[in-house]
UniProtKB/TrEMBL annotation:
Protein name: Xaa-Pro aminopeptidase
Keyword DNA-binding listed: no
Keywords: Aminopeptidase, Hydrolase, Manganese, Metal-binding, Protease
Record bears the keyword Transmembrane helix: no
Peptidase M24 domain boundaries: 156-413
Record field: catalytic activity: Release of any N-terminal amino acid, including proline, that is linked to proline, even from a dipeptide or tripeptide
Chain coiled-coil ranges: none
Molecular-function GO term, any one: aminopeptidase activity
InterPro entries according to UniProt: Creatin/AminoP/Spt16_N, Creatinase/aminopeptidase-like, Pept_M24, X-Pro_dipept-like
C-alpha cells in the first residue's frame, strides 16, 4: 500500500488550510479525475487513462469521471463512479483504488450541489477548460501545496530510484560496440519491468555518437560504434510517480575530448546539486551552470574572447540550449507551470520552472553540453557569435555528440538529498 488514509487526510488538511484563506463560505472547488481521451480514428480505443494528478494526489483513486469536492462548510466530499459490470469482463477486477473511502455516487452530485446552494463552483482537474481568475488562484495554491512531497511520496520515489538503478546496472554491462540503441532501451526497460515498474514515464531516450546530441533522441537500430558517447535518459514509473535520470557512457576507450566533456558536465552537475537548497532561486542555479559551462568551453579553446562578453552574449546557449531542470515526482513534469506562464529565457534557455526552492521540492538537476548540428550548421544561429567561436577547434568536436547527467534532488530543511544517488555515475570516463 503506497498511501494510507492518513496520508491522504494530511494532504487535504494542508490544502484546506490554504484554500480557506481565499474561499468564501458559499463557494466550492470540484477536482475531477478526468475522462479517457479517444484515439483519433480509433473507434472505441482510448489512450491509457491517467487520473489528473491533483485528483490522484487528493484521493489515492485512479478511476475516470470521479469528483472530490471541497467547501469550507462541507469539508471534503467524494463522488465516485460505480464501474459498469462489463468492465470486469474485459479488464478483470481492476485494482485502481489505492485508498478506498466510502463516497457518494456520481449520480448524487447534481442533487448535492443544488441542496447546498453554492453560489460559485470552481472546476479543476482534467475536465477544466481555460482556468482563469479565482480558479487559477486556487489551482496555483493546490500545485504549490502538492509540490511539497510528503514522506509516502518520497518513499515511493526512492523505490523507483532503486528500480532504475537495477536497470542502469544492466546498461553498464550492455553498452559496447555493435549493440544497437534499441537493444540498450530493451535491456533497460525489461529490467525495470522485472523489478516492478508499471511503465516508463516518458519515451526512453538513447542516443549513440552524434545522436547523443539530440536532446530527446528516440532509440533506433543504429549500432554503437567502437568509441562513441552513449547517452541514456530513462526513468521508471509506478502510479504516475517517477524518476527522470540521465547517464552518459562511452563504448570502448574514451578519447581526451570525450573525457574532458564528461568531466566538465559532471563538475557542473555536482556544483549545481550542491546549490539546490531551500531559498535558492532556480534561475540563479541555472545561471551558475551556464557561467561554468562558458568558462569550461573557453578553457577548452572552443570559445574565445573575454568571459564578460561571452556571458553577456549568452553564447553558451549554442551548446547548453535547455534549462537546468524541472520539478519531478508525480509525472515527469510536475507542477511549476502556474508561476511560469510566459517563460523567460536565461542564458538563452527558457526555464520550465522559475521559482524559489522550498523544503520538499523535488527537482531534476540535468546540465548537458552538446554539439548539435541543427544549431552549429545554422548560419543565422551562429552569426551573432562569429567572433566568439574558434571554428578550427570546433571542427574537432562536431561529431562527438553530447553529454547530459541528470539526478532528482529533494530539497530538505537542512540541505538536500539526491534521491537517484543509487544509480551508478562514473566519476570519469
Ligand atoms: N526525460 C526528459 C527530460 O529530462 O526532460
Ligand atoms: Mn531526463
Ligand atoms: Mn528531466
Amino acid at each position: 500500500m503506497y498511501f494510507t488514509t492518513n496520508d491522504i487526510q494530511a494532504r487535504r488538511d494542508r490544502l484546506a488550510a490554504r484554500w480557506d484563506q481565499v474561499l468564501l463560505s458559499d463557494e466550492a472547488v470540484l477536482v475531477h479525475s478526468g475522462k479517457p481521451i479517444g484515439r483519433p480514428g480509433g473507434l472505441d480505443q482510448t489512450y491509457t487513462f491517467l487520473p489528473h494528478p491533483a485528483y490522484f494526489w487528493l484521493t489515492g483513486r485512479r478511476r475516470e469521471e470521479e469528483v472530490v469536492l471541497y467547501s469550507r462548510n462541507t469539508g471534503w466530499q467524494e463522488f465516485q463512479k460505480i464501474p459498469p459490470p462489463e468492465q470486469a469482463v474485459w479488464e478483470g477486477e481492476k485494482v485502481d483504488l489505492l485508498v478506498n473511502e466510502p463516497g457518494q455516487t456520481l449520480e448524487q452530485l447534481t442533487g448535492y450541489l443544488q441542496a447546498q446552494g453554492f453560489k460559485t463552483l470552481y472546476q479543476l482537474g482534467q475536465s477544466e477548460q481555460a482556468v482563469t481568475g479565482k480558479a487559477f488562484e486556487l489551482r496555483t495554491l493546490l500545485d504549490q501545496t502538492r509540490r511539497v512531497k510528503d514522506a509516502a511520496e518520497v518513499r515511493l520515489i526512492r523505490e523507483l530510484a532503486g528500480i532504475a538503478a537495477k536497470g542502469y546496472a544492466v546498461i553498464e554491462k550492455t553498452v559496447a560496440p555493435g549493440i544497437t540503441e534499441r537493444e540498450i532501451q530493451v535491456a533497460y526497460e525489461s529490467e525495470i519491468y522485472r523489478q516492478g515498474a508499471h511503465t516508463v514515464p516518458y519515451d526512453s531516450i538513447v542516443g549513440a555518437g552524434t545522436n547523443s546530441a539530440i536532446l530527446h533522441a528516440l532509440p533506433t537500430l543504429k549500432k554503437v560504434g567502437p568509441q562513441e558517447l552513449v547517452l541514456v535518459d530513462a526513468g521508471a514509473d509506478i502510479y504516475d510517480y517517477c524518476v527522470d535520470i540521465t547517464r552518459t557512457y562511452v563504448s570502448g576507450t574514451p578519447d581526451s575530448r570525450q573525457k574532458a566533456l564528461y568531466q566538465l558536465v559532471l563538475d557542473v552537475q555536482l556544483q549545481c546539486m550542491a546549490l539546490t537548497k531551500a531559498g535558492a532561486w532556480w534561475r540563479d542555479i541555472h545561471g551558475r551552470a551556464a557561467t561554468l559551462f562558458t568558462q569550461g568551453l573557453l578553457e577548452l579553446g572552443i570559445l574565445k574572447g573575454s568571459m564578460d562578453s561571452l556571458v553577456e552574449k549568452e553564447v553558451v546557449s549554442l551548446f547548453f540550449p535547455h534549462g537546468l531542470g524541472h520539478l519531478v515526482g508525480l509525472r515527469v513534469r510536475d507542477t511549476g507551470h502556474e508561476e511560469n506562464l510566459s517563460p523567460k529565457a536565461y542564458f538563452g534557455a527558457r526555464l520550465r520552472v522559475d521559482l524559489q526552492l522550498e523544503p520538499g521540492h523535488l527537482i531534476t538537476v540535468e546540465p548537458g553540453l552538446y554539439f548539435i548540428k541543427a544549431l552549429l550548421d545554422d548560419p543565422a544561429r551562429i552569426a551573432p557569435f562569429k567572433d566568439n567561436i574558434d571554428f578550427n577547434e570546433l571542427a574537432h568536436w562536431k561529431n562527438i555528440g553530447g553529454v547530459r547527467i541528470e539526478d532528482n534532488v529533494l530539497v530538505t530543511e537542512t540541505g538536500n538529498e539526491n534521491l537517484t544517488e543509487a544509480v551508478y555515475k562514473a566519476a570519469s570516463l
